[in-house]
Amino acid sequence: MNEYIAPIRDMKFVLGELAGLDEVIALPGYEDCTPELTDAVLEEAGKLANEVLSPLNQKGDRAGTVLGPDGVVAAEGFGDAYQAFAENGWCGLSADPEHGGQGLPGTIGAAVSEMWNSANFAFSLCPMLSVGAMEAIAAHGSDELKALYLPRMTSGAWTGTMNLTEPQAGSDLAAVRTRAVPDGNRYRIFGQKIFITWGDHDMAENIVHLVLARLPDAPAGTRGISLFLVPKYLVNPDGTLGPRNEVACASLEHKLGIHASPTCVMVFGEKDGAIGYLVGEPNHGLAHMFTMMNEARQKVGIQGIGIAERAYQAARDYAKERIQGQPVGYNGTGKAAIIHHPDVRRMLMTMKARVEAMRALGYVLSADADRAARHPDADERRCRQARVELLTPVLKAWCTELGQEIASTGVQIHGGMGYVEETGAAQFLRDARISTIYEGTTGIQAADLVGRKLARDKGAAMAVVIGEMRDTEERLSTTNGLEHSIIRTHFGPAIDALEQATAWILATLASDPAAAMAASVHYTMLTGYVCGGWQMARAALVATAKREAPDDADFLRAKLTTAAFYAEQFLPQTAALLTTIRCGDSRVRAMGDEDF
Question: Which residues are CB-contacts of 21 (< 8 A; sequence separation ≥ 6)?
């Protein structure tokens, strides 16, 4: 199985030239974050990913996790890797310094997160969920909960989870039945949660569960859900651990992929009730949990990028090594590596171009989130926040759908060897499959984009995005070069398609909401492709402006070629998606249930 090598050169290009990292680290609160520090962080993260996490990826997939009498036992090597991860401060990279964190921008965190997910998808889920739990506690927890739990979670001594789903509820959280019974200044929790990622393990001293449950007098539906903090081990006032709480993993799911990540059925309160503490306001738990959910959705979008990059690297390396046949147009003698076959090159270019477009969108959106949180101008903060809210479902849905497709292409390039487990290509595909499902399926993301984000402001935030795309298109027209001409030829019509699709969605939401929702996934994918094209066009402009730099000439030339390839191969798809969107649900509701 090929080793993973973090693509730090492209990461730095995107961070510096597209996400505007220099501007981000100049924001209030990031004064200690220098360019030298960010470079060092990326280099050290790459070493940990390459040397510690990546070698465990295939081993963990084969071994999986085991539910023993004392709980879940992580795959061999994972515990040591987690200790190295925590001791080097990675758990608190972007956490508040008040609680022991390093306080670095989320923009840098996005790049580091991509490395973790490329190197070891299953491992990365544990710290990802911990970060989300920390965000929720920091935003909504009492001062006492923050002081007691956040420093230990920031250090990595304790990890965190998110407990939403129940057997009868699925994504319909209005059907949650887990109960919270008041007991003085705490609560006793009774219920069962399923699909809890890293719900139990032996890598950390304690596990902090954030659990959705209902108070006795709670109203029905989602407005009656509260959020509770339930530790695996009770915590004494001085932060030391007390007795085991009444929470346990009842069983482990046997899954298609991410075998080294335990997916647990968690039982709370089989006897007297698991002790829990209210987080935030009663009956506002779903809103509070969305602090964690939105963090997770952004990170899952980055997961799609990470697994796609890993699949691309493996396919590229295999294509350079595998000798087979004499390709059409090949000028050498004898048989050649399959990278010289035109269709293999097409597949590799497809993988590369998509990965670079996804990475650019992910990092730029992370920079928008940093600006939304810290920019000194209130109007700028509002504008950036509107963009983050609008495009987070696009990032999550588009990047994970493409991540899955890219991993599948990687199997295809490997041929028969891709279908067996020896090369590892099949694992990338199996692991990638979950990313389109958890933290809200692609359909749920599309419903959020269309039914909430567009409907809420009547497309105002999207209009701002489209306006900036037009500015980029105009810049292309004032710069000479074949690649710019190619990109502009396809980028302009793609923007038109997005604008027309947005108008159709908004009009149809008012007249026939079901038809708009039937087209919502197509609209989400169209938006993703155009946003990716926008970032690739920006990258091409930068590459042209800097192409005389001697040290980067090859890299910049490849960036221009890749951007033009993306424009030619993927932006024309937006016209077909627009046609499909305008069909709405003309046939979706025409067939009776009995005809399926």
Answer: 15, 35, 38, 105, 107, 108, 367
* Residue (of 393, 409, 389, 405) closest to 442 by Cα position: 393
Catalytic residue among 439, 473, 474, 483: 439
Separation of alpha carbons 377 and 502, rounded Å: 29
- 255, exposed or middle or buried, with CB in 10 Å at 0-12, 13-18, 19+? middle
Residue type, 381: R
Residues 540 and 472: their CA atoms lie apart, in Å, by 11
What is the spatial distance between Cα 263 and Cα 251, in angstroms, rounded to a whole number?
9
Residue with tokens 């964190």: 101
Task: List, for residues 14-39, the tens digit of each pLDDT value.
Answer: 999 999 999 999 999 998 999 999 99
- CA–CA–CA angle 350, 389, 495 (5° rounding): 45
Residue 172, SS3?
coil
CA distance 309 to 352: 8
CA distance 379 to 464: 13
How many secondary structure helices (H) and strands (E) does the chain include? Answer: 21, 12
Question: Which residues are bridge partners to 228 per DSSP?
Answer: 211, 278
Nearest to 535 by CA among 305, 315, 327, 283: 305
The domain locations on the chain are 449-589
The predicted model scores a pTM of 0.96
474 is an active site residue = no
Nearest to 201 by CA among 233, 130, 249, 256: 249
Query: H-helix or E-strand containing 197?
Result: strand 186-197
CA angle 65/51/126 to nearest 5° reads 40
- Chain position carrying tokens 């920079």: 367
**CB neighbourhood size of 397 (10 A):** 31
User: What are 89-128's pLDDT values in tens digits?
Assistant: 999 999 999 999 999 999 999 999 999 999 999 999 999 9
Report whether pLDDT(509) > 60: yes
CA–centroid distance for 550 within its chain: 35
What are the angstrom distances between the C-alpha of 142 and each of 2, 27, 150? 47, 27, 11
Contact 575, 541 (CB under 8 A): no
Nearest CA to 403 among 345, 354, 437?
Answer: 354
539-555 mean pLDDT:
87
For residue 379, the tally of other CB atoms under 10 A from its CB is: 8
DSSP 529: H
pLDDT in tens, 5-19: 999 999 999 999 999
313 within 8 A of 4, measured Cβ to Cβ: yes
Asked if 70 and 125 count as a contact pair (C-beta separation under 8 A), the reply is: no
Does residue 463 contact residue 533 with C-beta atoms inside 8 Å?
no
C-alpha dihedral over 471, 475, 481, 487, to 10 degrees? 0
Q: SS3 for 417-455, per residue?
A: HHHCHHHCHHHHHHHHHHHHCCCCCHHHHHHHHHHHHHH
- Mean pLDDT lowest for which of 126-135, 271-280, 453-462, 476-485? 476-485
